[in-house]
Amino acid sequence: MAFNFGATAGAGAANPTGAFGGFGTTTTTAGPAFSFSAPTNTGTSGLFGATQNKGFGFGTSFGTGTGTGLGSGLGTGLGFGGFGTQQQQTTLGGGLFSQPAQTPAQSNQLINTASALSAPTLLGDERDAILAKWNQLQAFWGTGKGYFNNNIAPVEFTQENPFCRFKAVGYSLMPNNKDEDGLVVLVFNRKETDIRSQQQQLVESLHKILGGNQTLTVNVEGVKTMPDDQTEVIIYVVERSPNGTSRRVPATTLYAHFEQANIKSSLQQLGVSLSMARTELSPAQVKQLLQNPPAGVDPIIWEQAKVDNPDPDKLIPVPMVGFKELLRRLKVQDQMTKQHQTRLDIISEDISELQKNQTTTMAKIAQYKRKLMALSHRTLQVLIKQEIQRKSGYAIQADEEQLRVQLDTIQCELNAPTQFKGRLNELMSQIRMQNHFGAVRAEERYYIDADLLREIKQHLKQQQEGLSHLISIIKDDLEDIKLIEHGLNESIPIRGGVFS
Questions:
Q1: Residue 95: enclosing H or E segment and its boundaries?
Q2: What DSSP designation does 447 have?
Q3: Which residues of the chain have pLDDT under 70?
Q4: Residue 263: CB partners within 8 Å, gap ≥ 6?
Q5: Number of C-alpha atoms within 13 angstroms, CB side, residue 19?
């Protein structure tokens, strides 16, 4: 369902545009091909030879609808294809965002809606009251037809009607890209993995669509996955001049070229379902947008939404009409949550790797410190031996004598009982006592639970009984062996006497 902020009085209302159409009219006629000649409108010319449109787009973060005027941007998201400086054929009081004057058709529509909801005269009896309640239910739901008179066509209830209850206002981030950045969003009905694997072929196809001019280069700014297996691709085109300089083609110019009928059909063959220019809103455009509530939204709710805006400089109120829009925003939120979680996982892995590297680095630093200390001691020993050999045979000098006196003084202070040596001895004794008490406490710290001790005793008792039983068996076997041995010894002499 499309949200329209009012019909324009000129040709702009009858000129459908992609994404969200134009805010006004222009006298430019777009050519059927990619044109480098000067446009028919005066005052501007460029490589793409488009209009003076300084349009802007909210990108796919605000919607994926197409239509005229504001299109379905306020039904399925918010995106703008062309505010700008076109030659307006409407008066100051009757623009797209202004409140248009009530036409007779609109007045009749309001009268018919009121009749369908309050006093239908279709049947002429008490059933008309039931029909009125049914029409009210349809109006609240935002779908169906309201029959109220046999001679008048029924009223079509849409979700844009002011009685629809399934409406809310959310907030979306306004783009901050300038028109000179040349960023254009293309939404593909393909998965992100397919787009990334065939990105080079996609760039070549877009270059062919732009005419295959060697002075133009298509660049991909970013690729982002979207719900329902869609992918958002942000591109910009760089134009190189013969003198070696280069510039980006303005976003509105590139978007106007993509919206030509033959170019748009070529993009659709590539799987593009939506294209829009990603440009920022001017303060005047933001003011104009906020002053007039969208169609079907209560002005009081719209004003409250503006008051509740958590960041008016970056966010803008966006009406949500129907469950489809709510589901779409929920999917976008889930997708963004997954992306944030993926990014957090990557950051967590990086932090873990950095922590490992930090541990390794700290260990290496400690190792190098020990090596430095050892090398310093060795160097000092070499210097001492070298100094001894160098001054061998020389008398002690005055500075050396002074240094010896200082060292003796320090040695005496260290050896004094009440000075550092005594304190060191006291500290050493305290450390020994703490170690002793710590060992005692460590021994007393461990104990066996009563149930566990009982189980251990039972187990040892069973082991002891088993050993006793085994010993008794061994003793019985030894007695049997002795008896057998005794019997064998007695039978040998008897047999000897018989055979003699």
A1: none
A2: -
A3: 1-107, 438-447, 492-500
A4: 34, 209, 257
A5: 32
DSSP code per residue over 251-279: HHHHHHHHTSHHHHHHHHHTTEEEEEE--
Q: Which are the contacts of 183, defined by CB distance < 8 A and separation ≥ 6?
A: 177, 221, 234, 235, 236, 251, 277, 278, 279
Closest among 234, 251, 254, 252 to 188, alpha carbons compared? 234
Q: Report yes or no: 88 and 29 within 8 Å, Cβ to Cβ.
A: no
Provide the H-helix boundaries in 225-321. Answer: 251-258, 261-269, 283-291, 299-307
Length of the chain: 500
Among 252, 224, 225, CA closest to 236: 252
DSSP state of 452: H
Count of alpha carbons within 13 angstroms of residue 163, beta-carbon side: 20
Predicted TM-score (pTM) above 0.85: no
Query: In what helix (H) or strand (E) does residue 315 lie, and over which residues does it extend?
Result: strand 315-321
| Single-letter amino acid code for the residue at 16 | P
Strands 145-146 and 155-156: antiparallel
* Separation between Cα atoms, residue 259 and residue 257, nearest integer Å: 5
How many CB atoms are closer than 10 A to CB 233?
A: 25
Tell me the three state secondary structure of residue 206.
helix
Tell me the pLDDT tens digit for each residue of 419-467.
777 777 888 888 888 887 765 555 555 567 788 888 889 999 999 999 9
Residues 6+ apart with CB under 8 A from 68: 2, 4, 13, 15, 16, 17, 21
Cβ neighbours for 172, distance < 8 A, ≥ 6 positions apart: 58, 61, 62, 77, 78, 315, 316, 318
Could you give the CA distance from residue 104 to residue 88 in angstroms, rounded to a whole number?
A: 24
Radius of gyration of the chain (CA): 46
> What is the secondary structure of 137-149 as a DSSP string?
HHHHHT-SEE---
CA–CA separation, 132 and 143 (whole Å): 15
167 close to 237: Cβ distance less than 8 angstroms: no
DSSP string over 129-172: HHHHHHHHHHHHHT-SEE---TTSPPEEP-TTSTT---EEEEEE
Contact present, 42 and 53 (Cβ < 8 Å): no
CB 55 within 8 A of CB 83: yes
- Cα 105 from chain centroid (whole Å): 48
Nearest to 7 by CA among 95, 108, 91, 89: 95
What are 53-92's pLDDT values in tens digits? 333 333 333 333 333 333 333 333 333 333 333 333 333 3
